[in-house]
Design goal:
Length: 196
């Protein structure tokens, strides 16, 4: 379980195919403190640490993950957002994030205004019931507040600190991002479907 508060970014050192999977080596400030078999969120995707060194770590993504997220398009040199799993008993400042991506969204607009950046995203309308005005949404592993929510679109605002400490500078019109909708909405939707 995660909170959507990015701790560091990682740089892709290599991407290698492994049957239908892809193996990634990343360099980051978190790598040295990780343990093999630990979960680490990469652009919002929960992946297992398979190997590590003092400055880098290796993870793999299976075909299901590659098809449902933006990890399949990552290349050497790309920057990803990283977050370690939350600790029980400590404060968390985002919202409950599983690291299980629902799908991707495409950036349809990016606008810089004094003090922040506004992004507009378009997503598959089948997820429309899972996002609400001023509700939480996780974009590339970052906990954000959605506004101007439509049937297949939403906006988010990014403050300078988040902009400078995540991969949001690389997100431009046409970029594909990972989206995880609020888990509470999923349970409510499931309950309502089964109650009919």
């Amino acid at each position: 379980m995660f909170t959507g508060i990015v701790e560091a970014t990682g740089k892709i050192l290599s991407v290698e195919p492994d049957r239908e999977n892809k193996v990634f080596w990343l360099k980051s400030s978190l790598s040295g403190g990780l343990k093999v078999d630990e979960s680490l969120c990469h652009n919002g995707v929960c992946l297992t640490i398979e190997e590590k060194s003092a400055t880098s770590h290796r993870v793999s993504a299976i075909s299901e993950t590659l098809n449902k997220t933006n990890l399949g398009g990552l290349q050497r040199g790309d920057i990803v957002n990283l977050e370690r799993s939350m600790k029980v008993g400590s404060r968390f400042h985002g919202h409950l994030v599983q690291g299980h991506i629902d799908g991707t969204a495409i950036c349809i607009d990016k606008m810089e205004i004094p003090g922040s950046w506004i992004y507009s995203f378009e997503f598959d309308a089948r997820f429309a019931s899972l996002i609400i005005e001023k509700g939480s949404v996780c974009v590339n592993g970052v906990s954000l507040t959605a506004f101007q929510v439509g049937m297949n679109s939403f906006n988010i605002a990014v403050i300078p600190y988040t902009y400078e400490n995540t991969n949001f500078p690389m997100i431009t019109k046409g970029s594909i991002v990972n989206v995880e909708f609020d888990i509470m909405g999923k349970y409510i939707q499931r309950y309502l479907e089964l109650s009919k």
